[in-house]
From TrEMBL:
InterPro entries xrefs: DUF5692
Transmembrane segments: 6-25, 34-53, 65-84, 96-117, 137-159, 171-188, 194-213, 225-243, 255-276
Domain of life the protein comes from: Bacteria
Protein name, entry field: Uncharacterized protein
Keyword annotations from UniProtKB, A to Z: Membrane, Transmembrane, Transmembrane helix
Length: 305
């Protein structure tokens, strides 16, 4: 196969189980404040003390600085978004509303730095096969463009229904797709043997809810599914790499070129469109939302009322 070695039926079935599990836990957390507190505060404390020092230590495939930073930054996002959703007045504070954009940009930047680092790596590193090359630089640039095109955080609102979702009307489908392609390329570049689950299943688990269950809440879905996955994979690192269900990358340079080229092309397209809208409508993206004239933006904004 092009991206991966053979995918046996039981691995394909497990992929669906992982996808469904992430979406189910996300939905329960989305609708229950107390479940979220247990899942994103109590469980990580227990894992940090009793589990991760043994399962995600030096030499483990999840024992790198990136995995440790990623799990805590994802959890920080979950807790920050919960505060915006549930603490009275926080959703009206323009400085606090900068937090979602900042934590998102930081998460992307972490991966960009790692992509640039992997450029010079070859062979087994921390239990993961690395095939560094120009594709890492291409995808790192795509990630930077993805950060630049983040906009409209000042328009974040909380839905009026029982779930009290954090909605970001200016974060529309084309930016999300460009992010997904970039992030898959990053995982495929930097931890390719994990990308069957940590790339494809994880990204789809937050994109489906954002498109079909609760539009406008993509970042909330992303933070929660990412935190859940990172806690799982740091507790059971062998699952993606050495278990019966693991699926290995082909480590094909052609595949690496293709996914990174698609990532760069998608993010260049969004970058061009983003600044076209800014220039045409004379909008300052640091002060106002960019896509208020588009139907998808209006649909999300209307759903929050």
């Amino acid at each position: 196969m092009f991206l991966f070695e053979s995918i046996p039926w039981y691995s394909a079935l497990m992929w669906l189980v992982v996808l469904a599990g992430l979406m189910i836990f996300n939905e329960i957390a989305r609708k229950s404040k107390w479940f979220s507190i247990i899942l994103f505060i109590i469980v990580p404390i227990v894992l940090t003390v009793a589990v991760w020092p043994n399962t995600a230590g030096e030499g483990s495939s999840t024992g790198t600085w990136f995995h440790w930073v990623k799990v805590y930054s994802a959890l920080a996002g979950c807790l920050g978004f919960m505060a915006i959703r549930y603490v009275k007045g926080w959703d009206k504070n323009k400085y606090i509303l900068m937090f979602p954009a900042i934590i998102l940009a930081v998460n992307i930047l972490e991966a960009v730095i790692r992509d640039f680092q992997v450029y010079s790596l070859q062979g087994m590193v921390d239990g993961v096969m690395m095939v560094g090359g120009p594709w890492n630089i291409m995808n790192g640039i795509a990630g930077i463009l993805n950060i630049i095109t983040i906009s409209g955080w000042m328009g974040i609102v909380i839905s009026k229904d029982k779930s009290k979702d954090m909605l970001w009307p200016d974060q529309l489908w084309f930016w999300i797709i460009a992010y997904d392609i970039w992030n898959f390329a990053y995982v495929y570049n930097a931890v390719s043997d994990h990308s069957f689950y940590a790339g494809a299943a994880l990204l789809i688990s937050c994109t489906i809810p954002a498109f079909f269950f609760k539009k406008g809440a993509w970042l909330q879905h992303r933070a929660q599914t990412l935190a859940i996955w990172m806690m799982f994979t740091m507790s059971f690192p062998a699952f993606v790499g050495d278990s019966k269900f693991s699926v290995q990358s082909t480590h094909s340079e052609t595949a690496l070129w293709v996914v990174s080229a698609l990532s760069l092309a998608a993010n260049i397209a969004v970058f061009v469109y983003h600044f076209y809208k800014i220039i045409k409508h004379k909008r300052n993206p640091l002060k106002v939302e960019v896509y208020t004239d588009l139907a998808p933006y209006k649909a999300i904004a209307e759903s929050a009322k």
